[in-house]
Structure formats: C-alpha cells, structure tokens
C-alpha cells in the first residue's frame, strides 16, 4: 500500500534518496550537540529550533518516500537518537575534559539521576559512598566533580580560588534580585559583603547580644512551661533561631516561641524554598523552565513577598537599634551609594535563611549527641555549674570563653553533622581557562565542590570519625591527655565554609549557641522522651542544601 501524501505535498520533488536524507538528519543531530555544548538549553527559542523545528523541516526530505506521519516519526527518531547518542558517547569518551576522573557511568552521562537523589535528601550519603568507592575525586555529573582531599580546600575556596559555580545562577533564576551568597563575581561579592562585615565586627556583635539574651531567656522559659511533657526540641530550637534572626535583621519579625508555632508560615516557606532550590543547583535548565510556570514562581517568591512586606515596615519605622537592616540599607552612611530596597530585602531574607536553620540544626544535633552520651552530658553539666552556679546569671557571656568542654561539644556537633553537608559548587571563570586545584585540574566549563560530610568523617582527618567524641578537641589543645595517638587535621574542619565567601555571621552564631546551651543546661534537665526512637535520628536527616532534621522528642524538668 503506497504511503499517504496530502495533495499539497504530492508535488514535492524527490531531491534525495532516503539514505541521503537520513544521513543529513544524522549530521544535523550531531550539529545540535555541538550547539548545545556551547549554549546550555536555557533559551526556549533555541531549544524549540533544535529539538522541534529542525527535525520537522528535515522530515520534508522523506515525505516523498514515506508520507507525512511516517516521515516525521522517522526523522524525529533518527535526529533525537543521534543527538542523545552523540552526547552519551562524548561524555563517556577519553576526550571529555573530566574523563580521567572516576565515577558511576550514569553520573558521567547525566545529572538527572543525581537530582533525583537530591530530591530524596540523601545526597550527603550518596556522595560519601561514591568517595569510598572511587577515591578523593569522583565525577558526580557530566561536568562536575566532588573532592574529599583536604589539600584542595585552599586552592579551590581560598582568596585565589574559584568563584561560585553556575548552580548558583539556577537558584537565582527564581528570585528577582540575587542574594549575597548567590553572587558569582568575586569583586561584586566583596562589595556587597562590606555592610555585613561592619554589622558582624566586634562592636556589632555587642549590639546584637541583648537580643540573643532576651530570646534565649524566652526559649528556656517556654520550655520550662512544658515541664514533664514530650516536646520536639528541634522544633523549639527553630522557633528560637527564627525569632532571634527576625530581631537581629529587622528589629523584630516573628514570635514563634510566644505563639508556640509558625503562625505566619515563614519557617515552612523557607524550608519549601530550600527544597525547591536544591534540584536546579544540579540541573540549572530546570529552573529556567520552572519559572515559566506561575504556580512554581508564586511558591518560590512567597518568601520574597514576606520579606518585602517586613522590609517596608522597617523602612517606615526607621532605626530603633543597630540591627542588620541598619547596615544593609546604609543607614550608617558608610557607602557612597545606598543599595536599592530590593537588594536590602534580598539580603535580609538571606540572613534569615542562613542564620536560622543552620544554628537550630547545630543545637539540635548537639543535644541529640549529648543525650546519647550521658558521660559527655554530665561533664558539660558540671562545667556549666562550675562557671554558672545557681543564682549566677547564665545569660551573661563573660565566662563562656573559659569553658573548653562547651567549645569542644559545639565543635564536635558541627564536625559530625555539618549544616551544609555537600559544600558549595565552584567553577573557573568563563573565558579564563581552567585552574589547578592541588594535584587536580578543573577545566573551564566544569564545576567542583569540597564535600564537607566526607571530609569531616574521613579517618585520615579525624580518629573515630563517626563517633561523637568531644575530647578530641581538648586533646589537640593540650588540655587533656590521650591514651592513644589520635589523628586531628585542623585544616579539615571548616564548618563555616572557607575563604572570602565564608559565613560572615560565624561569630554571632557561635555566641548565640554558647549562651543558649549554657542557659538551658543551667535551668533545665533534658532527657529523651519515651516515644523517641534514637536510631531514627540519622536516617531522618536530609541534605536540602542546608541540613533538615526530624523530630527530637525530649522531656525537660526544671533544676531550680
């Protein structure tokens, strides 16, 4: 039976034999791969031309032979198969810039599989298992490697290191203004960071301490009111950090501890945003198309809308104290040109996200570890009682720098459970070629990251790496004898990241945690609730850029 050809197409001349038409289609498919190598599929018109219009036009070469429907099916099949095969062969070939680095075959072909793992929240465990299988450098995507080698931290993340990678662009596609943490240009990042540096210098931290003390006092009082009840301590630490960060940034925002919950929906909005942004970091073109879906954009921008509202209120109220907004909006007059309200709001929201879930995660993991290790709990309790006996104001931080075991416990919690488990993506600047990172070479167009979870739990860096052992920090400082020779690589411990883009709020976060732990332990006794399953804690941890935790069910009792 001859192929069906519509009347208007019957007059098409037979210019090529079927084999020649198919060969042209193959060459065009190869050409599409070359174009996609130069330009990522983040331009709708380009993608439409290459994936739809081109094969449609090519199908006209076969219509005189096979008819319309069959020609279209044949052409699309040949074209797309050629394109996919070319991509796969190239990415697996010895000519690929990252060919010498080992990794799973699927990871070399596509990062979609990795994105699915990210969606499950188990990226930190997956990458660690890859390092254990393949070594210190493992290819986790067609153009990205994860590094476990401590010697690479300085050259990758230091002052002369690499700027942030394209994954940060993808996160920014769903935001009108990039936040400080998402700025890839080092010079622009340094400029935008100046007001942050002023806010978090020694004098700035002193300005924030009354808010720390007030919110810590409120936390302990609210917990004490629930004496004898089973409560989720991780949730209450989140309420505390959000309330404090609202005070520190805008002079006040949420009252989660007062309300006993997230009445405004801010906390859940932040967590939804972190989850939504974790996948585009690895597959940037997803964000480009997702932003064209109104429901996705509305969800992604919900936090920005809430931030805009609070920022407008803060602008109208003016300064009542030197909060972070005071510095970000240039109320101190240190910058020649004041930033736009949109930039101020963007960075204010960033501060909330960066300072809330991170600090609450450390506090939650810290108390989980203490409660699982009664000897350490008792030892810290004794240190607290020594410096802050009954009647002593434990909100006053004058003794906390003299409490070595408190510092050791905080460090050990951050080592065992880094709040940014999979680190930060870095990439050579476009047009400047690749860069040597230690003994490895990162080609232009490729990305690399230091995987904190793997580095912090590497036995070459820390003895008993998977064990909560605060003593290691005292031994290395010469404050305690060790019955065994221990391994302790201080260069491997970077809980607040490293280099010019490290956590600018490190010092206030540490003070916040020290005061919170000290005051809570002076006033309350904490134990696991009967309905808490100790063995489920680690399995409920999710790596959604920032660590997300399950419930920490405890019972508290007043000590006084």
- How does the major sheet shape up? 3 strands, mixed
CATH fold descriptor of one domain: Cytochrome p450
pLDDT < 50 runs, ≥5 residues: 7-12
Distance between the termini: 95 Å
Could you state the oligomeric state of the chains shown?
single chain
Give the helix level as a range of percent: 40-55%
Main structural class? mainly alpha
Overall geometric form: globular
Mean pLDDT: 92
Radius of gyration: 28 Å
CATH class of one domain: Mainly Alpha
Strand order of the largest sheet: 1-2-6
Identify the CATH architecture of one domain: Orthogonal Bundle
Description:
It comes from Phanerochaete carnosa (strain HHB-10118-sp) (White-rot fungus). GO terms for molecular function: heme binding; iron ion binding; monooxygenase activity; oxidoreductase activity, acting on paired donors, with incorporation or reduction of molecular oxygen. Its cofactor is heme. Keywords: Heme, Iron, Membrane, Metal-binding, Monooxygenase, Oxidoreductase, Transmembrane, Transmembrane helix. Heme binds at residue 503. The protein is globular. The protein has helices at 7-10, 18-38, 44-59, 63-66, 68-92, 105-109, 112-120, 123-134, 153-157, 167-172, 186-199, 202-224, 233-250, 256-259, 266-278, 284-290, 294-300, 302-317, 324-328, 341-372, 374-387, 404-416, 452-456, 471-476, 506-523, and strands at 137-141, 144-147, 231-232, 435-437, 440-442, 447-450, 524-528, 542-544, 546-548, 553-558. Strand 1 (137-141) and strand 2 form a beta hairpin. Among the domains are: 7-92, no CATH class; 174-275 and 301-404 and 454-488 and 503-558, Orthogonal Bundle (Cytochrome p450), CATH 1.10.630.10. The model is unreliable at 7-12 (pLDDT under 50). The protein is mainly alpha-helical and 560 residues long. Strands 1-2-6 form a three-stranded mixed beta sheet. A three-stranded antiparallel beta sheet has the order 3-10-7. The chain has a two-stranded antiparallel ribbon with strand order 4-5. The longest helix has 32 residues, at 341-372.
